[in-house]
Amino acid sequence: MEPIIELRKVQKSFGQERVLRSLDLSIPKDSVSVIIGRSGGGKSVLMKHIIGLMRPDQGQVLIEGQDISRLNERNIAPIRRKFGMLFQESALFDSMTVEDNVAFPLLEHSRKNRREIRDIVETKLASVGLKNMGHKMPAELSGGMRKRVGLARALALDPKIVLFDEPTSGLDPVMAAIINELIVRTQSEFRATCVVISHDIPAAMSTGHRLFMLFEGRIIAEGTPGEIQDWDDPVVQQFIHGRAEGPIA
Amino acid sequence: MMTNLVAALGRAVLTLLRESGRMMLLLLEALSWLVRPPWRWRLFFKQMEFIGVNSLFVVALTSLFTGMVLALQTYYAFRMFSAETLVGATVALSMTRELGPVITALMVTGRAGSAIAAEIGTMRVTEQVDALTVMAINPVQYLVLPRVVAGIIMLPLLTAVSDFIGVVGGYLVGVKLLGIHGGLFMNKIYEYVEFSDIYDGLVKAACFGLILTLVGAYKGFYTRGGAEGVGRATTQSVVLSSVLILTSDYVLTALMM
Asked: Structural domain boundaries of chain A?
């Protein structure tokens, strides 16, 4: 399948710590790709490179064939409009209502009038199961609801690529299942490419079309959930089965 | 021992240079957005209300008492050589040239500068600043520019109010309480206070407005480390703004002499 996101020989260090080491990654279009790996293992850094929040020390980050690693802020802005992102803590704007949060990207980047924007906001909120919640403030919502509002906001401009940063962390199992279902629906209904970073292995296995395992700054395994299950590497096996003993210290 | 001292001094100088450089770059980036659309009028007016209108009461109150205590102190000093009628001019000159701008700036620093650092700092640690960037909205243009411009515009206006209320305070104490002749009190003000005294004070106020909003925005923008980081950024912004306001006050006054 044609890649929509490609990372070539990406290196990133913070001081003496090398977080990404000549990392290669190819995310296929119209799929759910899940990047798994240990907490603090560079998954968020990797995602920030994909959306241009961080620049690699070396290597290339290609979005639909265009290298964004050397683009300035002005030139990267049109590329970012292809993305929607659900942040780990939702990153809703505290000072705005739910409705205003979802309407925000539309007000900024579309030429739609207020009425059209209101209709889109209602549709997006309904699609994440939050009808009639538009008037609430983010502080009044539970963690799961905040995530869903964050997803509605990420989907407001019908992006080609949706990034999910630890979408189920801190949620109860039922809410986590709802969010996972929304990820799958986002891909199938909106024809978006979804990239999820997670250390929730059961969720990754059930939602992902393709899994990538990040370890020590490199992708050490890549394949379908079935292929990853059978991957012949003790590191991968220890991680996916959550064993305390093994090569991962 | 000596080597350690030199090393510590060197580190402090390097930190100072690095911080100043980053703050200047932030200012330049913000100002570069002045001439580029979109112009966010709503955010400008909101910040003008927050920094200016909402600070009015505290500025008026402190200015009133500053004018009052100034009149009280100068009255007893001037009485020794029978120059009580100069109390009005002294209060007016002190307020317009010095105390109006400085007191206003320090009050706004405590009220709005700290809030700017806390608000932007919280947005930084909760990834709201990243969310803006991801939505292709420049966070410097969205968060920093409206606050800096509002500070530059509103501080002179607040200072004008402070000058006036300070003189009113001086009048109340000097004329109503201590019995200085009202006509003479006012006459000396007209005689000694020149337009340049007021103007220079307002120019200083605009500079202080830039300092306190820029420092608040800078400390907030580069906050690291969760709630503790936000608290640290807020405290640092108040201390640094206050120090910069008082030191730049001397430099500006010397330049205006």
From this structure: 94-158
